[in-house]
Amino acid sequence: SLIEHFNIPENDYFQMFLPYPSHQLFYNSSYLLEGSIKRSNNMIYVSITCGPGRTINQKKDLYKAIAT
């Protein structure tokens, strides 16, 4: 998605995958969810840091691509 929406070269990346034990996760399991839907501790938290130069539309399109 970053390659497509931010026009980043394929070999330009820095990724970290860090496991956390469930006792270190603090979150509201139903925040912004409807009905009886709940989050579990089996989650993936994605954090993307980008410098200036990305438009709001690029950021929205990237988020939409990741979330679907």
Strand content: under 5%
Low-pLDDT runs: none
State the total count of DSSP E strands. 0
The SSE order reads HH
Label the overall shape: extended
Gyration radius from CA atoms, angstroms? 15 Å
The structure class reads: mainly alpha
Number of domain units: 1
Q: Helix amount, in percent?
A: 25-40%
Classify the oligomer.
single chain
Q: Helical stretch count?
A: 2
Mean pLDDT across residues: 89
Main beta sheet:
none
**Beginning-to-end CA distance, first to last residue:** 11 Å
Which helices and strands appear, and what pairs or packs with what?
Blueprint: H1 2-6, H2 56-67
Keywords:
single chain, extended, 0% strand, Tautomerase family protein, mainly alpha, 68 residues, Tautomerase/MIF_sf, Tauto_MSAD
Provide a descriptive summary of the structure in words:
- This protein has 68 residues and is mostly helical.
- It has one domain (1-20, 41-68).
- It is built from two helices and no strands.
- The longest helix is centred in the C-terminal third of the chain and has 12 residues, at 56-67.
- The chain is extended.
- It starts with a helix and ends with a helix.
- It holds the Pfam family Tautomerase_2.
- This is Tautomerase family protein.
- It comes from Bacillus wiedmannii.
Compact description:
By secondary structure, the chain is mainly alpha-helical. It is built from two helices and no strands. The longest helix has 12 residues, at 56-67.
